[in-house]
Design a protein that fits this description.
Helix content: 55-70%
Shape: globular
Number of strands: 4
Number of helices: 21
Distance between the termini: 55 Å
Radius of gyration: 21 Å
Oligomer: single chain
Order of helices and strands: HHHHHEHHHHEEHHHHHEHHHHHHH
């Protein structure tokens, strides 16, 4: 049985083993476990019951991650997406006055459209239309983005009215603990310790416990809590003409967030084949779309692949066992959520920061001497962290690439989809400016 599983998940092809894959899954889970508490705290402000959303968050993360591992054999973990949950609550429900049941209906419709786009091959064509070197820029931009998130979570970088951001108080206990974690992981990586991320996170948390910076606030959650949100979605209301723009935003942002995350993680794991093709792409998109539909049914916002998967890849995760391990831990977390909540952000921040550094490796592949490539790549690279959006960076990059190619007379008929995509990005930026 073990040999058959190793053959199915292609252990020998990827040069991996059970210990490495399970360790990678645990590492990914630890870096994204915050979603168990952050997602419910955001969606509860839309009027959704906290306990129900907590249960839905764990269940959807488990379902999506396990499905991705089993079906697509990729080390990609899924969970309700940050950013989209904020859009759900603050823009749709609070800003537009849409009931959360209708908003869930919009999430469901966007998930069904995802499935249709996947089966017709349109999502795959969209990914193939993006120039190869922009993939590296997307990966690097996401690296900067998650490093910035880690630095902010640690309190090493803080907001500033004068300069937007500035250096935080490194003598503050949480910031000092995060600096310790960065040094610990860096030293372990220097000595090629595979479990460096996991040891760094747990070591930082243990030190935090010793200096009384870890606080445990237990609450009970269970599958029984789901009855307050499960199947409460209102699809009929979501299909009303006024809900079209809501569905479009859910669809658009998730589509390109997923492409950005997928490319970044797959590139870091060395899973992209010659010609910049990603094997089993239809299965990846199917798992993602199905998870979004599942999320809307049980009571949470759009489910998407998580860039924190790069933390598991950084410690050797290469197959679906990594994602399955993460999914099983989310399932367990449904019953032990208070214990998971003991992992503070200052302990996971060092892992995010150093994973971000590792993701900059591909930037060296960019042809910086060629303005046609360098300028779009640069815009992609910097706009992701500066706009706090994985979707916005590629928007600027693709618009710039398409414009420069057409203006310079180097446009190609085969790139029609890229030009169409750039036009859609322009419309999205106009929409955001109007909003």
């Amino acid at each position: 049985m073990r040999a058959r599983l190793e053959a199915y998940f292609r252990f020998s092809e990827h040069g991996t083993d059970w210990r490495t894959e399970i360790l990678a899954g645990v590492t990914t889970f630890i870096t994204m476990a915050y979603i168990i508490f952050v997602n419910p705290s955001i969606l509860s402000q839309a009027g959704m019951p906290l306990a129900a959303v907590t249960a839905a968050t764990c269940l959807c993360a488990a379902f999506g991650s396990i499905l991705m591992g089993l079906l697509a054999n990729y080390p990609l973990a899924l969970a309700p997406g940050m950013g989209l949950n904020a859009y759900f609550t603050y823009t749709v429900v609070k800003g537009m006055g849409v009931p959360w049941q209708t908003a869930l209906g919009a999430v469901f419709v966007s998930g069904v459209i995802f499935l249709l786009l996947t089966f017709t091959g349109i999502r795959q064509l969209l990914l193939a239309s993006i120039p190869d070197q922009l993939h590296s820029a997307v990966a690097g931009g996401i690296g900067l983005f998650i490093a910035f998130i880690g630095l902010r979570n640690a309190g090493i970088i803080v907001p500033s009215g004068a300069t937007t951001v500035t250096l935080g108080n490194l003598r503050a206990p949480t910031a000092a603990l995060a600096v310790f974690g960065i040094l610990l992981i860096a030293v372990l990586q220097t000595f090629r310790v595979k479990a460096s991320m996991l040891i760094g996170v747990l070591g930082t948390m243990l030190l935090g416990i010793f200096v009384h910076q870890v606080h445990w606030d237990p609450h009970a959650f269970s599958l029984r809590s789901l009855h307050a949100t499960a199947f409460h979605l209102d699809v009929r209301a979501a299909l009303h003409l006024n809900a079209f723009e809501i569905i479009f935003v859910f669809l658009f942002v998730d589509l390109f967030d997923n492409i950005g995350t997928l490319v970044a993680v797959a590139d870091r794991a060395g899973l992209i084949e010659e010609g910049y093709t990603i094997p089993r792409l239809t299965r990846i998109f199917f798992a993602d779309a199905t998870s979004t539909v599942m999320g809307s049914l049980v009571g949470t916002s759009t489910v998407t692949s998580y860039i924190e998967s790069a933390a598991g890849v950084a410690v050797g995760g290469r197959t679906g066992i990594t994602a399955i391990t993460t999914g099983l831990l989310f399932l367990i977390a449904l019953f032990v959520a208070p214990l998971v909540g003991a992992i503070p952000t200052f302990a996971t921040a060092p892992a995010l920061i150093l994973v971000g550094a590792l993701m900059l490796v591909g930037v060296g592949k960019i042809e910086w001497s060629n303005p046609l490539v360098a300028i779009p790549s640069f815009l992609t690279l910097v706009m992701i962290p500066l706009t706090y959006s994985i979707a916005t960076g590629p928007s600027f990059g693709l618009i710039a690439f398409a414009a420069l190619e057409l203006i310079s007379g180097q446009g190609k008929k085969k790139n029609w989809l890229l030009y169409t995509l750039a036009a859609l990005f322009v419309l999205r930026l106009i929409y955001l400016a109007h909003g």
